[in-house]
Amino acid sequence: MRPRVLALYLPQFHPFPENDEWWGKGFTEWRSVARAKPLYRGHYQPHIPADLGFYDLRVPEVREQQAQLAREAGIEGFCYWHYWFGNGKRLMERIFDEVLASGQPDFPFCLGWANHSWYAKNWNSADTKGKDRLLVAQTYPGQEDFRNHYQLVRKAFSDKRYVKVDNKPFFMVYEPSSVPADFYALWNKWAKEDGFDGVYFVGNCPYDKNSDDVCSQYGLSAVLKNRIQELSSIRNELFLPRQWNKLKKTWLGFLNLTCEKFHYRSAMRYLVDEIDDSKENVIPYLLPNFDHSPRSGRFGYILQGATPDLFYEHCRQVFKVVSEKQNPLVMLRSWNEWGEGNYIEPDLKYGRGFIDALANALSELN
Questions:
Q1: Which fold would CATH assign to domain 4-228+261-363?
Q2: Cys-Cys link to 38, which of 43, 76, 126, 203 (CB 3.0-4.6 A)?
Q3: pTM above 0.90, yes or no
């Protein structure tokens, strides 16, 4: 079957009061993106947007242009990051609320609950433990809050554009183990009362967790394996002898040159697992690129050397693995995480290269 590619979508690129308070009037992550500097010879920074420019997501025309580019890439829908911190506290809700209320763009969507606390990271400290500043705490007040959360989200579930799997609305949970167990049971119950066959809960989880155990433990339908975490654990095998890695942690750490960098070409084979990702309850990620240095500077995590040609090969690998599935879902990480150097929107270096790479890999399956 043809893969169903969903793309994680960050609704961040517009000013909102909390950002003004924390980082200064008018702040968006475009400020960090534009200020990024190369950390070593050949390091591609800054990443500058091309076709869409430094956009403001409050502008409906921008959202229409994004949807059109996503259609051309072969993406089925956007998975908007959704923030509910408990007791009705939300952040960055304006963009999706406008998409839902206006009916535009006429492009499928689903939600991914980013259920984690927000911190102001102290990247410049050698020991950040306990020193990061809490901005907003993620809480789980109980059944009444679960009901209020569901009442909000059910408006989206009922929209004709909402992505469903077997009459179950797709709903991703970033930290499934943090959510009380009765949350999943109650949402499934309420969804069935609304005429669905439950909720298609998808949990983000570490690459080394058994998907069957995770799904049964939390009542999930499927898991997303966060394989980018695996690169750190196999660092020595990939690039560095153990002695050099030890030296890097000591002397280079003292010199504040501690960014973790991996070659995309070498890392590709660790980003997909032919056996694990072929399971019905595992959804693989497509990872076009990654460079966290705009946010974290010399403490960044970097996949270097990512190109549209290599991403095309990565797409082919993933699509081959899911081709025999009943529900061949694939999650693109990400559509527009510019602050993490993790996007396929056009930039000045590669233009539409990553969009065309995905489209070409999908077109071969027709």
A1: TIM Barrel (3.20.20)
A2: 43
A3: yes
